[in-house]
Amino acid sequence: MGTLILEMAALGVAVALTSPGSVVAVIALLSLSHGTRRVLAFIAGWLLAIGVIAVLMVLVLQGQDFHSRHTASSRAASWVEVLLGCLLLVAVARAYRRPQHKPKSQSQPKWLARVDGSHWLLEVVVGVVMLSYALTLTAAAETLKAHVGPLDAAVAGLVFGATSIVTITAPLVVVAVAPDRATTVLATWRDWVVAHSRSILLLALVVIGAALIAKGAYDLV
Hints:
Layout: H1 2-17, H2 20-30, H3 35-61, H4 72-97, H5 110-116, H6 121-130, H7 133-146, H8 150-164, H9 166-177, H10 182-220
């Protein structure tokens, strides 16, 4: 169980580090009216998507033997990891070959004005959409292969969910702890993330993709 918890924490951190767009979105939402409520709705949607995947995993795949490397279920889970790793590397290769555009001016985008007048439920949907599903499915596959009980699986899911929101909750913490300096601090964060998001994302995806392929292939051999 300890190994599974460490794997879930690592995958959760990987989700957090490969979601610079979500960090920028959270910072933007905080600049709107009822910004804190909107960010909480965004995080709720993010965690809701993780919860739905976890529930479906238990209901649909309960009773399957993923623990042994030689069962069809376990091999299928390993193939899923290899496939997800390959897809991540393909996505990195395509993104790397595209020309890099300089960040646009930091004036408020037009879409923020539309969001400002929308219901907070829209942010729940945005949170669901922006979750990294490749890594979330990988976490589900690892939990199945660990062959743990429902309670241990739930704990693993909570660890994954908690670590996956580290970066998107950081702006909210800044607002709560230092409201007077929040605007300046978040603007600095936003500029840095926008300037370096491409490099961060590509490097993290290469490492994660290679790790998934290596682990899945090892379990298949």
